Amino acid sequence: MSKIVPTISSGTCGPLGVLHLPRFWQKASLGAAGKLHDEYPACGAGYDQMTLDALGLDKDATLVFIAESKPSYVEFEAWVKENMKADADIAAHNAAVTGYIHDDDTRGEIFGLAGLNDDCCSARDAVNLNNLDDWAIFHKEEISG
């Protein structure tokens, strides 16, 4: 069975307006189905946990809902709306996502995998660096073989 590299950016939001939530849903859905590429956790300690914390969602309950219900994204957002804390500060969460910067070593690794020099690219934020990482892994695994 082919494993899938998630390519929804952390910089994407759905109708609820929460950055990274569509990517989290895709990764958790693929993980529950046993189809998530081995390089990716279904729910990691970075943006995934940051998003759950910002919304006040329990990690285990959220993953169980996704695994058992297999919701579409719109169905998942409806569940999130019903289960998130009332005072969730979505704007603060979104600012934290877009403002996160990887350390120099991580940036260097991602540039190397993507075939870029550190001085050639203005991408410094984690969202854009993670996009480069996803695209490079996708190309290596799915296109180049």
Descriptors:
globular, 2 domains, 7 helices, mainly alpha, 145 residues
Describe the structure.
The protein has 145 residues and is an all-alpha fold. It folds into two domains: 1-100, no CATH class; 102-145, no CATH class. The chain has helices at residues 21-32, 47-55, 59-69, 73-83, 90-99, 104-114, 126-144. Helix 6 (104-114) runs parallel beside helix 7. The longest helix has 19 residues, at 126-144. It is globular, with a radius of gyration of 16 Å. The model has no long low-confidence stretch (mean pLDDT 93).
For the sheet with most strands, the description reads: none
Question: How many helices in DSSP terms?
Answer: 7
Give the SSE order as H and E letters: HHHHHHH
- Which stretches are poorly predicted, pLDDT < 50 over at least 5 residues? none
Count of domain modules:
2
Short summary of the structure?
With 145 residues, the protein is mainly α. It has 7 helices and no strands.
